[in-house]
Amino acid sequence: MVLQQSDLLILGVVIGTHGLRGDLKIRGSDQDFPLLSKMHQLVFLREGETVLKCARRKAGWYKGHLLLQIAGYRDVRAVQHLVGCEVAVRRDDVPGLPAGEYYWFQLKGMTAVDRRLGALGCLEDIFTTAAHDIYVINGDYGEVLVPAVKAFIADVDLESNRILFDLPDGLVQET
Q1: Predicted pLDDT at 169
Q2: What are the backbone angles phi and psi of residue 155, rounded to the nearest 5°?
Q3: What would the CATH number be for the domain defined by 5-92?
Q4: How far is the C-alpha of 88 from the C-alpha of 86, rounded, in Å?
Q5: What range(s) does the PRC barrel domain occupy?
Q6: 135-169: per-residue pLDDT in tens?
């Protein structure tokens, strides 16, 4: 089966090797990055082209990076060609979450709608603060930063790719 780019979820990039036993040092791309340590089937990409499909042998954390060993590779020279590659997994292989919880990749790109104001725009990014995540929405109201708290989120509909908010007055600057 040929994998399409849309079938894959890129979770990190190989930034180097670690030690002599073929460990790869991976830097994460966003909050979904820790998922990579649990996935068994991996795809390494360079400029959108598949370099290697393989199984994870071992994974562990070291100084904020994921150290990854892949099956069949036990020497640093054998994995050196993977430095600079993106590390992806098949979207279909990602384990589900409990009801009401979502991976960031599921939310990014959703159409954001407020009950009172209507369409806000596209949920383009998410970042973390000490208190909670913040959704970055761009659209007719410019950039709107919405705290990701249950009080503001009325509904998340993955099938229709829409997130419905019930935002308080003053959070969105109306023109």
Answers
A1: 87
A2: -165, 145
A3: 2.40.30.60
A4: 6
A5: 99-171
A6: 999 998 999 999 999 999 999 999 999 999 999 98
**Domain segments of the chain as ranges:** 5-92, 104-165
Q: Which DSSP string do the residues of 114-152 spell out, in sequence order?
A: ETTTEEEEEEEEEEE-SS-EEEEEEETTEEEEEE--TTT
For the domain made up of 104-165, give the CATH fold: SH3 type barrels. (2.30.30)
Which run of H or E residues covers position 26? strand 23-28
Q: What is the pLDDT of residues 63-103, one digit of tens each?
A: 889 999 999 999 999 999 999 999 999 998 999 889 889 99
Alpha carbons within 13 angstroms on the beta-carbon side of residue 127 total 5
Distance CA 133, CA 31 (A): 10
Name the CA dihedral angle for 149, 103, 64, 124, rounded to a multiple of 10 degrees: -70
